[in-house]
UniProtKB/TrEMBL annotation:
The lineage of its organism: Bacteria, Pseudomonadati, Planctomycetota, Planctomycetia, Gemmatales. It comes from Gemmata massiliana. Residues 424-445 are annotated as: Disordered. This is Rieske domain-containing protein. The keyword Iron applies. Keywords: 2Fe-2S, Iron, Iron-sulfur, Metal-binding, Oxidoreductase. Its cofactor is Fe cation. It comes from the Bacteria. Residues 87-194 form the Rieske domain. GO terms for molecular function: 2 iron, 2 sulfur cluster binding; iron ion binding; oxidoreductase activity. Coiled coil: none annotated.
Amino acid sequence: MTVLYGRPGLLGTVLELFAFGGKVGTSADTGFVFDPGRVSARLTRRFPAESIMFTHQSHLLHLLRSEHYTSEAHYRSELRHLFGPAWHPLATVGELARSGDFLTFDLLETPILVRNFDGELRAFLNVCPHRHSRLTDKARGHAEKLRCQYHGWEFNKEGGTGKIPDAKAFRPWDRENACLKRFRLETCGELVFVNLSDTGPALREWLDPVWEAWQSYGAGYRHAATWEADFPCNWKVVLENSLESYHMPEVHPRTLGPFPPEENAWHELSDRFSSFKTIPPRDFAARAQGWFVRRLGAPVTGGYWHRVVHPHVTGASMDAFRMLQCVFPTGPTTCRYRSILFTLRGARRGPLAWALYRVLRSIATRVARQVFAEDGAVYGGAQAGLAASPHAGVIGTREERIGSFQRYVLDTCRGRYELPLAERPAGGAAPPISEVPVGRPEPRA
């Protein structure tokens, strides 16, 4: 689960790591007591009453069947319909600070190179138009020129050729077919996004529900760490896990603890976006977080938010941190999950503020990685169960964001590769996310 708020929560864990010599605390250690009445009063002051609690009051039908998590055909359909038009967060601006800095990625079976050209960031296909070699096999580096590692062809920031060894050997010159393939690149705060499509909405339009919130990834929050891992599961297993808090007591009993009660949870659902909001109880951990935040010169809000932009980008935030996560399919039953963590630096300067920032950065990274690993331990079992399950599946109201996401997948993957829906089980609940049932669409031309 990508949420980092519960009991003891991120800052609670930070404080307990100090207080108990690196041991993550339990309720017995912290004396934690949850007072729903007190929390509910704080909640109604922060969020409008019409958005309180869950959207649905009864369970939902699991819209995806096992083949949607295992099929090569459906995987190809998702690459085309879901990921082709999407914007993908790949890096931070700080990782490409100097002219000549570059990073490379394997993104959706496409090799990508992102480079700083005198302060301008550009993204290209990491393939030379000469004889198809990768321009570089390095994951990151610095070079004065963008030069192919094989025959030394050089390229400028527009992707056009510069110096070519023995250029006369290529007369007459085919300039049109000698350029690098360029991809769209835009930024939101410190986040660098790349789009593999030549058409479609700009980044701001694509991120519209979260644009303002994600501008804070940077500014008073500094990049703390980036990590990723490959998992033996379909990408939707990872994404769906991030959209529900129901698994917290079982998977994260010590790092996150129990899920919040319904009166302390807000869900917002739409076709391409959903969010979860809660106010952690005002216990020792919350007061400690407020102490840290105030001494770093930032306002205290006390809230936790988790947002997703379909299909694959999520952002989590508290006063002390911001974290962006993105899952990339690498095959029908494999994926890569990347986390980009920012921790509060704030406006204050001086030795105390610097020391607090360094402490927060170090331990927040440790805790976030621990939660990441705990979630990773269950993905393989979930995938194996999906491949063998005869059950229709069911989604609880606490998991309703998954229902919204599954509807998005089915509504968007309308093409020759789409699989038919699982049949509604006898006596099962109708899918309440939409009153119109989703049937098998006609193939696109």
